[in-house]
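Hi P.,

Sorry for the delay on this. The queue was packed all week, but I finally got your sequence through. Input first:
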Amino acid sequence: MEKLTWLANPYSPHVRHWVELLNVGFQGEKEVEIVHIYHSNETLRVGNYNSNFVTITCPLPEFFKHFPSFFQYIFLGLYIKLSGKYKEGIHAHNSSGYGLSALISGRKYILTTYGSEVYKAISNNINSFYRLLIKIILGRARVITTSSPQMTSAVGALCNESNVYEFSMGVSREFFYSQSLRNFTREKLNIPLDAVVIFSNRRLTRLYNIEVILEAFKIVSLKEKRIYLIQIEGDSDREYAKEILNITDFDNLLYIKGFLEQSELNSLLCASDYTISLPNTDQLSSSILEGICCKCLPILSNLEAYKPLCEISISVNADLKSLENTFIDILNGKYIKKYDLIDKYAKKYSIDNAALEYRNILGEFNA
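Then the structure:
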């Protein structure tokens, strides 16, 4: 069995999704070793990896957990360089952290970029050292993967785009629509079957304009009792979460604290009719695509990254009046015909398509 080496945070949902993609695409043909530094969020791991094809390794001595992550990334790269391991190449998941380790290691590498770090590198208020570091890490990568046109454009502003593969990661098979699950979950949450339910399934941080969503919903729900909002906490900004809690005391709002398993998220999505995501910047997030696979239409802010969904989505500005009008339009059935597009987009963003892309990437990388 061929072995792959990933430099990645094994406790990240992003990496968990990559592991599922590997399992779907190769079905036992490959195994993977996830090599990592010490992370402070180790308790956040969701689910267990299949030990038949996944091993997890932290080669740094235990006292390194007291070092800042930046220095751990440097030492991880030096360890790989001096140990003589992983000469067949590595796949680094994120540019500024594990991408730095890959660069220092001297090995050939695939780099999967995260939107926030690349957008940060091209912003006007970032220091020149960070921008130069990201440019070098991107420039030395044999293959780069992105998940949206906006990310690809940002990468292109920093390096040559000729080795960039742009594709959605697709949706985990854990997300699927079930009418019986919809009815059961609504009954459990005391939501009428004929209610219109909007699910705000992005975590509580200022980036996602959650306060605007809550304020607009509060105004509309005072007049229209058919509308419900589900808001999850997730991996929240604690200070921002405290602010949000001050505006959550009104009818028809279900505020769910803590982290949710995929099965719990799937149940809530099945019980919902719409998802809402109004960030200031973003990539084509899996949380939006998961909603589509559970028959939820996405309400989205006007971002370049969301353009692939313009046909099926409901576009709105992240301001109070625009969102209030959108909620009223939804209650009046303005967007009901868009549900005819659900199956088309659910198929387009299948994890099977993403697995095929990764197979092609590995072929290019190993050629």
